[in-house]
Amino acid sequence: MQNNRNQRPDKIKTTFSVAEKALKDIISEGGKVSQYAVEKRAGLSNGALNYKAPEYIELKERINAAKAVRGQHPTKKVDTEKLKKEKSLKSKYRGERDEAKEELKKALGEKMELLYQLFHLQSYLNHLENKGVASADVIDISRRFRYIRKKNK
């Protein structure tokens, strides 16, 4: 594992020098300068220069400076305060969404339990009607539930 740690600065330096050469080539050819173009020309993976190594940060600043000189829009700097606020709002709303989902599950469960109990009451009422103990006129049930009761007969 220690060998990998010792090789990391060498890899960063190698990647930096390849990317730097690619940047110089793009500028000398008059091509469009971008981080993606530099990475592609250097044979690096997309986003390879996004690591927080000082060499990569310097190279990205040079890419932005080259963009500014050529009249291209430099990469926008991220407003960290705004980003923090957006993240906190996102987590807040995610929490509220999760609470609402739990309440909905609970309400649906209660609804299903009530429908189940209603079904059993209707079955029991039907049973009492058949034995002549009670009449269907005792309880006024909406058409929807009468349909269910008649369907079960």
Beta-strand portion reads under 5%
What's the number of helices? 5
Give the proportion of residues in helices: over 70%
The structural domain count equals: 2
Number of strand elements: 0
What sort of overall outline do the alpha carbons produce when their principal axes are compared? rod-shaped
Instruction: List unreliable stretches of 5+ residues.
Output: 1-7
Mean pLDDT across all amino acids = 82
What class, by secondary structure content? mainly alpha
User: H/E order of the elements?
Assistant: HHHHH
Write the layout of secondary structure elements.
Elements: H1 2-29, H2 35-42, H3 54-70, H4 80-131, H5 143-152
Summarize the entry for a quick read.
This protein is 75% helix and 0% strand. The protein has helices at residues 2-29, 35-42, 54-70, 80-131, 143-152.
Description:
With 153 residues, the protein is an all-alpha fold. The chain has two domains: 2-70; 80-152, no CATH class. 75% of the residues lie in helices and 0% in strands. It has five helices and no strands. The radius of gyration is 35 Å and the shape is rod-shaped.
What attributes does this structure have?
153 residues, mainly alpha, 2 domains, 75% helix, rod-shaped, disordered N terminus
